[in-house]
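Annex B, item 7. Sequence and structure tokens for protein A, then protein B.
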Amino acid sequence: MTGRVVEFDEARGIGTVEGGSGRLFFHCTAIADGSRTIARGAEVSYEVRAGHQGRWEAFGIRPANDRP
């Protein structure tokens, strides 16, 4: 899927992406390059999986122009 980062709280390490699947939560450990930080507004590609609290989450987040 593709979308953009709409929120990211670096201190808490959490954020949301918005794309074809709606708005999804993500944790900084879901950022594929291991940096644990990403800019708000960044265009990204990501996958969706069931999270620990029973809700859908984004993971494998990477810049949209850096697809595997």
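Protein B:
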Amino acid sequence: MTVALTEEKSQNIIQTVQEYGKRLFSFIRNRVGTDEDAEDILQDVWYQFSNVADASSIEQVSSWLYTVARNKITDKYRKQKQAYIEDFVYEDEEGEINYKELLLSDPTTPEDIELRKIFWEELFLALDELPEEQRQVFVWNELEDMTFREISEKTGENIKTLISRKRYAVTHLRKRLENLYTDLITR
């Protein structure tokens, strides 16, 4: 009886590969960078399909295959994101993590765009946690490239006070973004 079930399962897998193989490959290829990546993901999908105990119990085979393919594509991008972060977020001469390079560079890939989106969202969430004076000095100086002298003229505040406010802001932001960095590279 097990030989008959094994033969039936093999035929089911062969039939499914023949029926969905080309369309599934095209679906994956349109979402990844190379044919090789698409082939690797497709192979992972077929492997997972072949390991289903009773593939005939899957009601919507095409839906199941495309869902697995989407999940494999997502996994691939997460792995790439981890490598990407490690390559571009680095410590400077003072041993501090340098996010400015990452935030202000031009995105060239979907991974770049997504990573930049995550960082900007987290930066603005962290900025919202700061007292208004610290947040404003940081935004003016770092994001709008105003000098402390220009900020002082605009606000009437002493330059040393402005520098102190920015230092508190930077300390807070460094801590918050370092947690984000740690979260992303340990996924």
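Comment on protein B: Residues 81-90 have pLDDT under 50 and may be disordered.
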